[in-house]
Amino acid sequence: MVPPLFLPRIHFHPHCLPLPRLRRPAAIRLSLKPLCSSSSSDSPARTRPPLHGPSLRRGRAPPDHPDPFARAFDLAALRVPAPACAPLERRLRGHLLNWPRVRNVARLPNDQGLLSLGLSLPSPAPRHPASPATAVARREKLAREFNARGFLRFPNLARLSRPSPAARKRRERKGDGGDEEATRERDRDKAYVVEVVGERTEDDDDEWKGLVGEEGFGRGAWRMGPTRLLLLDESYAERRVDDLPEAVKDVLDHETQQDGSSAYELIRCQLTLFYNYWPMNEVLEALLPEGIIIPTGFETVGHIAHLNLRDEHLPYKKLIAQVVLDKNKPKIQTVVNKTDAIQNDYRTMQLEVLAGNDSLRTMVIESGLRFQVDLGAVYWNSRLATERQRLVNDIFRDSDVVCDMFSGVGPLAISAAKKVKYVYANDINPTAVEYLERNMVLNKLERKIEVFNMDARRFVSSIYSSQHVHPVTQIVMNLPNDAADFLDVFRGILRISQSGLRCVMPMIHVYGFSKAEDPEHDFNERINVALGDNVDSVQMHRVRLVAPGKWMICASFILPESVAIAQPNYISC
Predict the structure, then answer these.
(1) Which residues are annotated as a binding site for S-adenosyl-L-methionine?
(2) What is the pTM of this model?
């Protein structure tokens, strides 16, 4: 018997039950094992296991398997010659297995029919003489006939070559359990394997010999060439042969030989799904206690996954972080959790590294621009990328001069600099300003951005009191917690400005949070209080729902001239 060979993705056993398709009786059944469902009870916080498709609660746990998440499913499959695989796949569309990330065509490992034994296929008019008797002579002959077409006509040349040192070591470990250990090591990184199961018994032999005759049994015409497995839909696993759809039965009757054997066979398979196959939510649902809401979302900042775990998740935070890391490699290399709300002027977050490496420095790519970020020292929010692009693409014009009062590391300022005339960017955090300057150079936009590191009120006063600045047309105040409180700086702003420079009142885009039933009206009232005047025609835009009942709002309005020339009501810094 040829020893089983392995490919990187699919693992088979060589045992199968070939079923010739000539004169099949109605009483013959495919004795496939029924699917076993798990005994776990349903709860309101969990969804019921699906009746079909892959599920941890539907699968059968293989005995003595090292992977606790391994689940086996019984299937039926068609073994067909490799050249006929693609046409049959199109012909049987709708009858094949349709599971996520599982191919419905499985390749037998190193199955080349008689070629795997070093024998040539029979041909009535061979174009080349028979292969030499020894493997060394065959290898030398094939090497001499190598040409510009490569080894296209010699698919077994690599198999006939000298084995690698690793292969020799594996053979040396035979007999002491080394092969089994090596197989498990290879299976560790797989998502699934397909195994042909079921051995012929004497009863089976006698039963089929009575149908097709002594000489026709087990001839196996498929062994003359490479074959493939077409995995049928799981609903066909326990059906009788006569209960299969007509399309499948027509394929089974195709190319019946004179001796009663068929080129196509119906066989039994076992599909085993491993830990790498299951999505993150299913793994967490199996690991966490009943009644706990499964955390499924997180923010991605470069190679960092940023979680906001609930209090009920904290006892299992390490476990949750490891699953997030496993299911999002290699993109995610670090998993952190925010331990406290932002309560400082620099808008830095208190983060705890739960899994992966400890580095919080990363590179973020947004809208084709690159940003260096230290998540432990500066503020970054990837969920505002759509809002930033809305301002740049829909609001800003090529002739605009933008003033970003709370720029951070520059995601909006640098993105706007690609389009507008000039940008003034400010942040009170010196570390954020340092990264802003790096990102300007990194994206080659340092000539269109001027950077400041000061309080926002002092920054606005400096811009409007300077004689060497461009007239500002767009002002962005993206500090939702406190931005509305800084609007008082624009009251009487023209009193300190240089004459002749302010021809157009700037459009202000101020952000804020609101938990009111009417968040737009609530935020508009706060804007009027801060400016000391009623602002007409305020455009409100709901950015996102940050929490149940809590909206992030962007209010856009042109600064009223009556406010710009009014008496200031704050103490200048």
Answers:
(1) 388, 427-428, 455-456, 478
(2) 0.70
